[in-house]
Amino acid sequence: MTRILNYKLKIKYIPIFIFISILGTYITATYFFEPTQSSENNVTEHKEFQVKRLNGYKFIKPLLFVDSENEASELSSVKQSLEQVIQEFKNKGVLTSASVYIRDYENNGWCALNPNEQYKPGSLLKIPELITFLKMNELHPGLLDKKYLFNQKLETDKKPIYTTKSIQLGQSYSVRELLKYMIVHSDNNATYILNSIIDVAQFKKVFTDLGLSAPDWNASDYPVNAKDISLFMRALYNGSYLTADDSEYATSLLTQSDFKLGIAASLPNTI
Hints:
The chain has eight helices and eight strands, in the order αββββαββαββααααα. It is an alpha+beta fold and 271 residues long. The strands form three sheets. The protein has a four-stranded antiparallel sheet.
């Protein structure tokens, strides 16, 4: 009888032990990680890293990025070399300001020089536009195959510094073809048609989904820093925003760019 009573008493203590265990786990997690949630940018911040997730779903919250708060020590020598190069160019009067943002996609390490400096992105905004159209096609399959007539040239005071191929007046082009002209050949006429049919709300959502402020579609510019632009590239590389096939397609277009006078001029053909 004594053994039975002791057993029953032990059973009574189990809920208390479970409660203490749960409470201890909560206190430990809160103390060591101290997460804070930002609903505006979908970012959970911890002491050493940020986790960005995609909102808009009922039961899931897809992972976009996990960022370390601190620069990677293994990239410190690279950063020092870059600082010297930039300073040499400044001394020669070749440039007044420069920003560099480096991220190792495999190990997720990063470093940055002058990271808060903002610039006019110019044609770099064609990357989120490309992502927007692929997202639109995911929501409305068949969009990429729709054709549009090019019957009016783009009238602008801006003269493109570089252009190769361009769409021809009087001919019709599919959205897929227009995207290729925009990305591969930097054709502003193709971009002009795409701008006329783009879902502006979806374009803005691409920015806010990645934790950036929504651009003013009617503004003449949208100042960004080097890290801001890197987010679009990471979303494609990780396949975390578009489908894997669409991410692969978008990235393949970027590798076909026929502008070879920038960074590409100094890099091996294998990169």
